[in-house]
Amino acid sequence: MLRSTLASLAIVLAGPAIAADTPHVQLTDPYDSGMWDYHQIKLLGDPDDIRFDDRIKVRAPEAAEDAFNVPVLVDATALEDVEEIVVSVDYGPIPHILTYRPGDALPKIGLRFKIDQATAIRASVRTKSDRWHVGGTWIDAAGGGCTAPAQAYASDDWEEKLGEIHGRLWAASGRARLIVDHPMDTGLADGIPVFIIRNLDLSDDDGHKLASIELREPVNEDPAFTLFFDPATMPPLIHVAGRDNNGNEIEATLMAGEAN
Amino acid sequence: MPSRRAALGFLAASVALPQHVFAQPLSYDLRPVPVLPGIWMIEGATEYFSMQNGGAIVNCALLQGETGLILIDSGSSRRYGEALNTAIRKLDLRGVSAVVNTHHHPDHFFGNQVFADKPILALGQTGALARAEGDSFSDNMYRLLGDWMRGTEPVAPNTVLDPGEVMIDGRSFTALGLSGHTAADLALIDAETGLLITGDLAFLDRAPTTPHADLAQWQTSLDALVAIGAPAILPGHGPLDRTGASLTQTRDYLIWLNETLTKAAQNGQSMVEIMDVALPAEFAGMGAQPQEFYRSVSHLYSGIERAVLPRAN
C-alpha cells in the first residue's frame, strides 16, 4: 500500500517536470543541438502540429566570416498559405531573430544577423491551418557578434543617418531590397541599452498592407532585407513604415528604376 | 617456443607502435629554397588556415644581412617562429638579425614573439593596427588552428619603418608605403638583386583575401608595383614570380570581384544568392577557392550595395 502510494506520488511529482521541458510533439532534431525542444515550447508556444520539413530552405555560409553580418536566405515558397516565418538560432543570448509575415509577398526573405557562437539556425513556418514546418542549417562561427557595441559608434554621424533607407524594387524579378541605417543595439554590451527597430511594414500606394517584418535584437546593424513578390502582382511602388523602441519613425518609398 | 625476452619484445613493439602514431607532435616542415644570391624563400601552402597545415600558408623571405638573416614576415604562430629560427640557423649560425612585417595580418606577424629581442620593423600604421587587432586575430587563430597556436601571443612590431631608401642590417632596400590589401601595406625592393617583395598586395595561384581591402586603393598600388618592372617578385602567397603574373592575376581577380558584386547589387541580390555564382575558370583553380570568394562577399558587399542602391527616403 505504502509502496503504491509512493509510486503514484512519484508519478505526480514527475509529471510536471516532464511537461516543463518535453514538447507536446517530440521531434528528432536533424542537427541534434540539444536546444530545439526548448525553443519549440518557448518560442513557438509548444504547437500541437509541427514537423521538420526539408521543403523549408534555410541557406547560409557554412562558416560566418563576419559575426556582425551573417547572411541567411529563407525560402518557404514550396508551401501554400504561409502566415508567418519565425527565424531563430538555437544558441545565442537572444534566440529570436525576426518574424516575417509575408502577406501578399512570397514566403521568402534574405536577411543578415549577428551570431554569438556556432549554432543551428531555424525557420519555423506556420501556415493558415496552424501547422508548423521547420527548416534549418548549421553555421560555424567565431562569434561575439551579439555582445559587442554597434560599429556605427566609431563614426560621429550615425545619428544623422539614423533611419536612412537605401533600396528599390525590381519589377521583372519581383524583388524589393532595402537597407535601413540603425545601430540595432542588443542591450548586451556594457552600458548600452537596447536600441532596435521594432517593425517594418510594407504597403502599397492605397495603404493596403503587403507584408511586415518584426525585428528582434540579433538582426544586424543597418538591417538589410530582400523580399520577393510575384512579378505579375508586385505594385509599382511600396511604402515602408516602421518604428524603433525609442519611438523614432522610419519611412521610405521603394520604386523600380535605375540604380545609382 | 619463443623466449621470454622475445615475447616481451613483441609485446613492447605492439604497444609502442600505436603510441608512436598518436603521440606525433605538431611540427612545421619549413624548407628555405634559394631563389637569388643570398636570398631564400619559404613557400606557404596556397590554402586557408587549417588544422592540417597548421597555418603555414604564408611566404617568408630570408635575405643575407651583415650580422645575420633578415626575415620578411614571421608566420602564423609561436611554434612557426621557432621552426623558422631552427631552419634559419642552418643557413646562418647567427640566426635572424632583423624582422620586417609587410602588414598586420596574423599569418605575417604571429611568429614575432620568437624574435622579440630583435628589431621588428613595419610601417607605423601597421604597428598600430597590430596592437589594436592582435587579440581578436588571436582568438580566431586559436579557434582555427587549435594546438598549433599553443603559447602564441601577438607581438606587434617594435620599430617604425618609414618609406624611402632604407638600410636594414647593412642591406639596402627601397621601402614603399602602399595600401589597399590593408590600410598599410609595405612592399620592399632589394637594391642588390631587384627582387620585389610585395606582401599581400600580390598573390599567385592563390585567391587574394579581402578582410580589410579597399579595392580602388589596391588597384592603385598594383599599378605602382607593375611600373617597377621587377625581374622577380615574391608574392605574399604562391610561388616566386619571374614574369609579373602575380600582379596581373591579382589585378584581374579584383576587377572581376568588384564587377560581380556591383552587378549583384544592381540586381538586388542578397549575399547568399551571390555565393551561387560560378567562378570563371581562370579564378576557380586558385588555391583557397571558392572559400575566399565567399569571404569576400561578406567583406565587401555591404559597402558596394550601399553605394549602388538609391536613397529611398
Automatic annotation (TrEMBL), chain A:
<dbReference type="InterPro" id="IPR014880">
    <property type="entry name" value="SoxZ_dom"/>
</dbReference>
<dbReference type="InterPro" id="IPR013783">
    <property type="entry name" value="Ig-like_fold"/>
</dbReference>
<feature type="domain" description="Sulphur oxidation protein SoxZ">
    <location>
        <begin position="175"/>
        <end position="253"/>
    </location>
</feature>
<protein>
    <submittedName>
        <fullName>Quinoprotein dehydrogenase-associated SoxYZ-like carrier</fullName>
    </submittedName>
</protein>
<dbReference type="InterPro" id="IPR038162">
    <property type="entry name" value="SoxY_sf"/>
</dbReference>
<feature type="domain" description="Ig-like SoxY">
    <location>
        <begin position="42"/>
        <end position="146"/>
    </location>
</feature>
<dbReference type="Pfam" id="PF13501">
    <property type="entry name" value="SoxY"/>
</dbReference>
<dbReference type="InterPro" id="IPR030831">
    <property type="entry name" value="Fuse-rel_SoxYZ"/>
</dbReference>
<feature type="signal peptide">
    <location>
        <begin position="1"/>
        <end position="19"/>
    </location>
</feature>
<dbReference type="InterPro" id="IPR032711">
    <property type="entry name" value="SoxY"/>
</dbReference>
<keyword id="KW-0732">Signal</keyword>
<dbReference type="Pfam" id="PF08770">
    <property type="entry name" value="SoxZ"/>
</dbReference>
<dbReference type="InterPro" id="IPR014756">
    <property type="entry name" value="Ig_E-set"/>
</dbReference>
Automatic annotation (TrEMBL), chain B:
<protein>
    <submittedName>
        <fullName>Quinoprotein relay system zinc metallohydrolase 1</fullName>
    </submittedName>
</protein>
<dbReference type="Pfam" id="PF00753">
    <property type="entry name" value="Lactamase_B"/>
</dbReference>
<dbReference type="InterPro" id="IPR030811">
    <property type="entry name" value="SoxH-rel_PQQ_1"/>
</dbReference>
<feature type="signal peptide">
    <location>
        <begin position="1"/>
        <end position="23"/>
    </location>
</feature>
<dbReference type="InterPro" id="IPR050855">
    <property type="entry name" value="NDM-1-like"/>
</dbReference>
<comment type="similarity">
    <text>Belongs to the metallo-beta-lactamase superfamily. Class-B beta-lactamase family.</text>
</comment>
<dbReference type="InterPro" id="IPR001279">
    <property type="entry name" value="Metallo-B-lactamas"/>
</dbReference>
<dbReference type="GO" id="GO:0017001">
    <property type="term" value="P:antibiotic catabolic process"/>
</dbReference>
<keyword id="KW-0732">Signal</keyword>
<dbReference type="InterPro" id="IPR036866">
    <property type="entry name" value="RibonucZ/Hydroxyglut_hydro"/>
</dbReference>
<feature type="domain" description="Metallo-beta-lactamase">
    <location>
        <begin position="57"/>
        <end position="237"/>
    </location>
</feature>
